[in-house]
Amino acid sequence: MDLARVHKKIAEAHFFLGKLIQQEPRILGDKEPFDYYLSAFLNAARTVDYQLHREQGTIYKPWRGVWDARLTSDQRGLMKFIDHDRNIEVHDSGSSRNVGQEGVKFGIGTHQVDGGIVTISGPPGMEPAVAYRLTYSFTIDGTEQKVTDACAAHLALLQRMVVEFETAHP
Question: Which of 87, 100, 127, 140 is the most buried (most CB within 10 A)?
Fold first, then answer.
């Protein structure tokens, strides 16, 4: 069984997850790349299942039903959520990710951030300066999860699914 295209999409999703993780802690610069990488991740991840349906439909569809039944309710919820969020991203208003912000404190001194340098000066005992970075989360089944954590968990499930499918159908 040749699942080269499926493995390519797993690798692509892994690549874009890495980009999301790199982009997530940024304080300075353009914030749009996070959304671009999230869109690319969602599309690559969704295509894994699509390719399996397309290439192995007669055996994949019944096997997938059995595989889904063995997942925990949280895992099933995550799989459904990510697939649904991809549909919203592509066909509607964009990903349902929540955007917040968190403060990052910088004491007196020089600090390396996002490929640049920030220097804070002031009198001794001065309160730290605070810069704000964006945070990204999903609300999945009523629980807030970092986007990168949810995407990593989803990708791990996809990888497990592909390995188990290949093992069941050598």
Answer: 140
C-alpha–C-alpha distance, residues 131 and 46, integer Å: 36
Amino acid at 97: R
d(CA 120, CA 128): 9
Who's near 149: CB < 8 A, 6+ residues apart?
none
User: CB atoms < 10 A from the CB of 160, how many?
Assistant: 13
What's the rounded Cα separation, in Å, for the pair 6 and 2?
Answer: 9
d(CA 118, CA 107): 10
pLDDT in tens, 93-133: 889 999 999 999 999 999 988 778 889 999 988 999 998 98
Phi-psi category of residue 26: left, alpha or beta, with phi > 0 → left and psi -120 to 50 → alpha: beta
Question: What pLDDT is stored for residue 12 in this prediction?
Answer: 98
* Distance separating alpha carbons of residues 70 and 26, to the nearest angstrom: 38
